[in-house]
Amino acid sequence: MANLKRKRGGIATSRKLRKLSPEEDTNEEMSVIDDGEDNGSEIEEDDDEGEEEEWDGIQQRQQADNLPPFKSLKPTGEEIRVIKDATDLYRSNSFKLQIHALLPNVRPKSMYSAPLDKFLLQLHEFLFKIPLVPPKQPLEVARALLKKGVSVPYSMPLPTEDTAWKVAFDKPSDITLVGSWANKTSVKGQDKLKYGVDLAVEMPNTLFQEKDYLNGRFFHKRAYYLATIAAAIINPKTGLKNVEVSYISRSDDPRLTKLVLEPRPDGSASDFTKLNARVFIIPVLSPDCPIPLSRLSPSHSNIRITSDADSSDDSKSKLPTPLYNTAILTAFTPKSHLLSNHNLQQSCPAFNDALSLLRIWANQRGFGEGSDSHPSVRGFNGKGPWWAALLEFLILGEEPTSSSSGKGWGKAQSRKPLGRGLSSYQLFRAALDFIAKHDFVNEPVFVKTKDGHKFLPDEYQSNHEAVFVDSSSTVNLLADVPIGSLKLLSRDAQKTLETLSNTSLAGDPFDEVFLQDHRDLQTRFDAVIHVDLATVSPLEKPIHTALDAGSAQNAILFSISSLLTRALGNRASSISILHPSPSTRPLSQANPSTLPKIQIGLSYDTEHAFRQVDHGPSAASAEADPESVEKFRRLWGDKAELRRFKDGSITESVVWEVKTVDEKSHIPVMIVRHILKHHFALGEDAVHTWQAPFDSLLRLPEQISRFYVGSGMAMGFKGALGAYDNLVKSVKALDDNELPLTLLNVHPISESLRYTSVFGPVPLTPALASALPMNARYLHPIEFILEFEKSSKWPDELKAIQKIKLAFLERIGSALMAATPGLTASVVIGEGSGEESDIQDTARLEIVTPEGWAFSARIWHDREATLLDRIISGTGSLPHVTTKSAEKKSKVYHDAVRAREVYTRRFIHSPAHHRAIAKLCHHFPAFAGTVRIVKRWFASHWLLHGHISEEAIELLCAAFFVEEGWEEEVDSGESEGGENKRLRRDIPGSRERGFANVIRFLKDWKWEEGLQVPLYSPSPSLTEQDKGLSSKKAEPTTAVPGVWRIFTLRDPKGTAWTSRGPDVIVARRISALAQATWKCVRNMEESGKVNVQTMFSHPTSDYNVLVRLDSSVLSRYHHNVSPDVSLLDRRAASSKKYANEQGGVVIRPGFDPARLLFRDLQFVYTDTFRIFHDSFGSDHFGIVWDPALREPRPFKVMSRFSSLPCVVQKGTDKEKSQAKTGKGQSQKEKDLVVLNEGGVLGEVERLGKGIIKTITVHA
Where is the composition biased (Acidic residues) (predicted)? Predict the structure, then answer.
């Protein structure tokens, strides 16, 4: 900090309070905030100039300086406005301060700009000294320059030996610094991208003729002019010595090639390496150039060359060339853009900061320069002028238009300017609001001009997809931007506005808006398709399209975008092509390299994305409009066919055949694959996505699934729901004589009935089980709860209630078996956890239907909660009398606490949770798949069930789908026939995107802060289920081992599903695993090689002990992530294992020996080690010793772990310290013990006899 001292005899003033011009204010701000070392040195030098004295107060200071006495002043209107803005507009002072602190840190450091200024002066003098070259034939001079190592970047159509016109070089008529550097609006790019310094070199008019707008003549002359400058700079005798020179082409368009000058570090006065900048030399035209502007309108045809295929049709040779014309017009605009931006800076002080904020926001989302690891959105490379023109349009308004078509113009005319008095943040939000709401397809934009329109407005809209004409009224700045990219931009703007307007955020949204990198493809798009362009071969190759686009590659990318937009229709809200930004190339390479690969990002409209039929023209309209039928068939190829539908209509159609729900979610990608194959000859090996590998993680191996498919039984979630409905009907159909009380409700609580179980539920009949191997016979029981009417017949004692439940279940089971032949039912007591008591609900009815479905029924009696609360609170049978005891809590108390926890979770939370999650699955198509993949990930890393519950994972995933009021949104959508507007714009439309979002969240989640999930909507009154949850006075305030807190309206403490885990160790392990998984995701994005299996392969080197199980006796081995398929073949197994099955196979619902052994070991050795296991068929346990037990400690009785005496070995630090002090071991030191690891492992092996195969101890 600066010293609070002043110099004698002078008035100390603050440099930051000095009134500055916008440019001075920017530089001063940077010097104060960023250049701490320099500022510090300046302060010390100032202090050394005079004698110092301590600060002695305001009054003494006023007297010493003869100032008028201090008066209390009221805040000015400007100060009041600033305070109000910080409260209302920014929502917090910290957000405003963060923005002001951000801007100086993203702008170039002025302290490093002096060498650049010197270099630009040298370059300016050098360019004027380049000798002129007389007019020569284009190919002749190209051969001469090639001998010097410089290729001339001629664009198509290339000049020939017969070309009559000449190229020449003369000194520039003007050299101007243009672009963002000249206007001081440069901002730091992503991936350490260098600042760009644009130098406009104006080519003299004498080099051009009126007809140079035809057939690329202007671009050829421009290319030679640029190559001549490059040859002069690299000349070893007369050139510049301290720069590297290369070519770069904006949007990989050879017509827009420019020179790149990068410094060589030599320590000279003109070495601007520290500035991290590079200079671009851009040849431009003067406003009075001989090339007439009237010939460059979007509707003019300036390429008069046809291919053999087009020669038969004269109309094709006169097609408009809007992109070609726009490329020529860009040579006129650098100076006009410079002047318009400068005028805005003078009239609107907030323009610079607003533009900087907008550019920062865009860079964080890929709307700028990109790299191999983070590709940019196509169309936004080099679009700096558009961002400035967008703010200019908002500030000044737009030019009035009149149109014969009238499409979209009325709304455009009513748009009014915002004015010049807004703050930078207000302008930034206004720009986002415009982007989010503007219809770029139907609403053209013309920025306000001085001289009116130069071209007819109709010409732009008829020849461009999107129209945004700059203030010079010449260039459509969005001419080469695909509509899909603009839709993605609009979606990102909507999402940002939601973030800025979200009042439920705990802190300010600064990091989310300006700092967080949003370029990760898997979290941004519902489907990411990697396309290898090495073998691309377009079905149609019109030469005109390639010449207009600038290159064959650009024409292919435009065609891909256009065809996919037509084919997908309303299935996708945006279709984006992403690829790295153009890179520099050596001067010996004339044209830019072709892109080896691209990524296609799809954002689904989930209401339409997964339909199976696309309808085309009807058979009746085929005669009237045969062209539409031909167009439909040309788009779809052999996939199109004429079909008759149930309503009697006969139409051209495309049908996508799918067999499962998982395959149905692949339909958009199937469409992309078909279009790329049909139109571009890109086969399966050239198109990659990671959807199919995820399918294998959620399906049974083919060796097992073929038995189910061949059986013809109803399977999956639909089959389970049907079996459940039939069972409920059977229970409700029982006579009143068979049930002493009336059945009120049946509550499903199983993940198999809410679409979120990892594997689709399947039945298991004895006949099917006999055909399956022993390690593939697991039958998962589906749980539900029976609620009977309230009655005084129930006893008022907990133990008696449990006995009555047993009688009820036995009566129900007997009645069902009598009513349904083939149904079996048995009463089961206990959970096998070792913590049950006789006052806890432990009884259930196990039912196996004739179709092979297993169910588990429990009885809910609300009186249990009251009786348990009385025990916990100590009131006993007299609620008004409370017995306070200072004695240690009894066993009955602890049993009641555990029973109350089980009751609340099982009978209160579970039914409500099930209803909410099932509703989510119905409303959000991607939610169920996301939950299943995330559960599979947790299980594959040995965490699910043992350390984290399935319900906690479902809540975690729900956080990415729900927003406050989502239930009202669903209800309103249903009442309006399914048409509803989502509250959120970033809801995943695919399970893959949902999974990536969860992993990215877990890797950085500060679980100490918890997670709020608005799963339930607030209601005016509590339901009966809520009443059991509202009596919080009886709940004990004991610590819980789980550290995750997932808050909901029904669970304000956030511990309903996380009270038993994960604990601190497991929570940190989850973060580490998520970080490693995210690294795999990023590697797949960068390489394009999809290997999903690596994210679900669990590392085992961190475990102290690895226990291997016998795979042949594990009933769920077929659920393993990577099973040994040879073990799933019954014919390869030993015949002795199946010798005792001659009398038939016994179905054991829920029987999993590995899981049972895991629970026993976890309960018995809870104070000794942590054990990990994948409940989905893993054949390994992982054990981590408690590190504290491996250190010597004094022996104690009842130490809760197996120990053995510890002997202090010679040479240890302890013995050396004793030798120095001359003291021997005390009695306590002789009685030290450590963990008996060998003994514990021996006990584990004995407990797991018949299941455990080997035990491996890691050093």
Answer: 23-56
